[in-house]
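This follows on from our talk about sequence and fold. Go ahead and set the record down below:
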Amino acid sequence: MAFEILDPRGRGSNVAGGRYRMSFLENLPAVEQFRSEEMNMVQLIIPVESAHRSITYLGELGCLQFKNLNKDKSPFQLTYANQVKRCGEMLRKLHFFREQISKSGLCPSDGPLLEMDIDFDDLEAQLAEYEAELQEINANNEKLQRTYSELSEFTLVLEKAGMFLSKSQTNMVAHQTEMEEASYNGDEFVDSPLLLEQAGMSRQGRLGFVSGLVPTAKVVPFERVLFRATRGNMLFKQVAVEQHVKDPVLSEMVPKVVFVIFFSGDRAKTKILKICETFGANRYPFPEDASQQRQIMVEVSERLTELQTTVDAGIRHRNNVLITIGYQLEKWIIWVKKEKAIYHTLNMLNVDVTKKCLVGVGWVPIFAKAQIQDALHRATLDSNSQVGTIFHMMDTTESPPTYFRTNKFTDAFQEIVNAYGMAKYQEANPAVYTIITFPFLFAVMFGDWGHGLCLLLATLVLILREKKLGRQKLGDIMEMAFAGRYILLMMALFSIYCGIIYNEFFSIPFHIFGPSSYRCHDLSCSDASSRGLVKYRDPYPFGVDPQWRGSRTELPFLNSLKMKMSILLGVAHMNLGIILSYFNAKFFANSLNIWYQFVPQMIFLNSLFGYLCLLILIKWCTGSKADLYHVMIYMFLSPTDDLGENQLFWGQRPIQILLLLLAFVAVPWMLLPKPFLLRKQHLLRLQGRAYGILDSSDTDSFDMERDFDVEHEDFNFSEICVHQMIHTIEFVLGAVSNTASYLRLWALSLAHSELSAVFYEKVLQSAWGYDNIFIRIAGFAVFACATVVVLLLMETLSALLHSLRLHWVEFQNKFYEGDGYKFNPFSFTSLGEENE
């Protein structure tokens, strides 16, 4: 076990502790790796006086993942719990300032994030002063704004309600008289006695009224409830306000109506006041005398002018305070977030019994060891500590985290693999091959170089504007498209390539590589689809001959071609997965997996489906008419029968018998030997431990016996046998189902081609057959919309999901365990992302 003491006496450093910079890992050259970076567990013994600065420098470096050594402690028992709480409170205040700046329509300063010499206690006190000042200003402004809104509404009531006050009183008396007469004449009024009572009261006293404003949306239910509550013994007058009114309570602009309610009696008044309160109607006193109305109007106008001046002064003062805060707001937020992250990390370290140093444990990539030592050395110098940090490597049996260096191109492909499961430490990384195989299998299903060009143009827009788009808030769908822009780029390029092979451009064939190799059977014919084709020259140089389009044998030919091609690609893809399992077993020195997993799996898969691929290639090369379905079926049912016209090469029958025997032998080869060999290895290991116990001291013997019992309990032979049986059955059945699953390449390619042909022939060509220009334009519009929505969006998503399924299930299950965990170093780079 090696260790180093970082000597505090050494070369100087001009790096300040508060500097915010990009992570060291972010600046490394990034290429997709076949295996993850090698990791080591390290232990740090940091003096207390340099602990804060050491963690700061490690956060700037961003290449050390700390382990939490205080999981068993509650948050209140941690050493730096109070500092974390204070940082959280400071962040709350800073977010409050940001909200206030946003509400005021101001913009925070976008100045550079320069190095700042900030004291924690001073900033905390300063933020508390700013918050208290802003809360006081806001409270005063809120009161003034409410008073101003109330006076504004009062002005509207004085203006609108006075014009019909006297007229409404007269109408109310007439209304009551009519109801009284109706009740005496025998009309059907349910509440006629009460109406008579109210009418008698109106003769003895004057009518009362209530005036105010109510939101327009509540006028109808407001009037209905008033009518029912007073039993019709009231008169409701209203007039709409032309402009929206700022509500004193809600502080929002609301459309309102000025109302006046005439009534008689105290009971009616009590009910009306309660209903006004329920509906949020603001009531205002209204003098009956015209001279008093004019006097109040003048006083209210003067008061409004004074309030407006006071409110404007308060807003200017608040804006000045917010501008002062906004100049450093973003710097403060980043600084406080960084401090909170530092103290949170310090809480993951153990405090030594002497309380003079902190002990931390973590994972670090081997290539970053020198940089970490340099950062700790600089922290010791800058904190004027007399004792250096002790940094030493630890031996452990714990599985390290997995870290792959990526760049903006390879990151999206790595995330596709990580979505299935994080690679186990040093396990083969499927993302290396996914960069090519994923977009290629997509293109096999999507192959049309016209659609590929459209996809390429859309992707180039995302790539060329990536800096601008990366700073914007995009929708969920656009976020996914932008994150996978380089995946889309590769998909578009491969789609163009496969489209040229299929010779499809929006389902239209082109003679790109010269004239066709076929012509009509009859030299005088013009319709190849009815007369048939004959070959008269060398094969077409590249891809599908354009003359197949529209012929009678187009569909059978393309079906056969794409189906056989899907089988070839699928078997090759699965073989690649099995070969990668060999490299995994070889790297981890697991000879059992090589001889009893890799070898029988290769034999079984290639004895059946590898042989089928060989037959397909021979048939293509020789032009044989053999029925491959018949060959494969009778290879199992009647392996000794004569092949007849289905024989493709000499010695085919004995080779098929041999391959069939190898496939049958491969099944017990995978199933039986491995569990017994594992049991034998376990017994030998236990026997070696037993000898070690006899030669050790009493204390050591007790520990080794305990380990002996634990290992003995952990090994379960029956469980291993069941697991191996499941794995064997899964592979044997999966070899068939996985091969059939790759036929989706054929099915989706055919569906894409036929859909494209339907849109072209039934929509665009049909519309182009008319002489009317409007029908042609409409037909082209329908064709363009169908192409974009169905073929470029829905078909792209469908092919992408199917390609994803082929990689996760058919390819990665051959070798990829994906039970690791991601390397997550302590780094300040995420602070800027959280702040956006």
